[in-house]
Amino acid sequence: MTTRARSGWFLITGTLLGICIAAATPGASDAQEASVPVPVMGRDVSVTLSSGEKVRGELIEAERASLLLWGDTGFQSLALDDVAEVSVRRHSLSGSKLLWWTGLGAAVTGLGMTAACASVDDTSCAGVFPAMVLTWGLFGGLFGAAIHRGSTVEVPVSPAGLQPYARFPQGAPLDFRERRSGRPR
């Protein structure tokens, strides 16, 4: 190993070690995280009505007889008897988004590894870029399929099945209901 390669190896190892130590050390970062406001939102749902119509929006509350959604058109109350199926979006990382990041990672890693290989004398670098793309594609495709399959879940059409995904699982506060219905506080 040449002196130049050794110094690069020590630089990369030292940087990674510093990042790991900083991430594992409790201190000021914990205090900063505690002061960051956490958005309290209901999950995005896709509701299929008995008529076949689909309604999408944030689940605000699930009562005994109705669901309250917040969508593009504002608040929408749906009778629970009219609901055929409810799909809840569990997380925002879809399979297509992961595949996009996989493609970007494959291109950057492939170009970087090809450039690094080309800097070494007497080597053939023709297979480096395709190998990186195939490796990233294999793992990204497998993880993308798994994430896409787990990104939504079908839940029972009942208040007990839907309440854990609502913004107000215990029911909306009285002042919220009054403002929504247009009555004064």
Short description:
This protein is an alpha+beta fold.
Q: Helix-strand pattern, N to C?
A: HHEEEEEHHEHH
Q: What is the CATH class name of the largest domain?
A: Mainly Beta
Q: Helix tally?
A: 6
Estimate the strand proportion: 15-25%
Q: What CATH architecture of the largest domain do you see? A: Roll
For the report, how would you describe the main beta sheet? 6 strands, antiparallel
Mind telling me the C-alpha Rg?
25 Å
CATH fold descriptor of the largest domain: SH3 type barrels
Q: Which shape, going by the Cα principal axes? A: elongated
N→C terminal distance: 76 Å
How many domains? The number is: 2
List segments where confidence is low: pLDDT < 50 over at least 5 consecutive residues: 28-32
- Which structural class best describes the helix and strand composition? alpha+beta
Give the integer mean of the pLDDT values: 79
Biggest sheet strand line-up: 4-3-2-1-5-6
Describe the fold and architecture.
Helix 3 (95-118) runs antiparallel to helix 4. It is built from 6 helices and 6 strands, in the order ααβββββααβαα. The model is unreliable at 28-32 (pLDDT under 50). It has 2 domains: 44-90 and 152-181, SH3 type barrels; 93-150, no CATH class. The protein has helices spanning 3-24, 28-35, 95-118, 128-150, 159-162, 174-181, and strands at 44-49, 54-62, 66-71, 74-79, 83-89, 152-155. Strand 1 and strand 2 (54-62) form a beta hairpin. The radius of gyration is 25 Å and the shape is elongated. The protein has a 6-stranded antiparallel β-sheet with strand order 4-3-2-1-5-6. It is α+β, with helices and mostly antiparallel strands. Helices cover 48% and strands 21% of the residues.
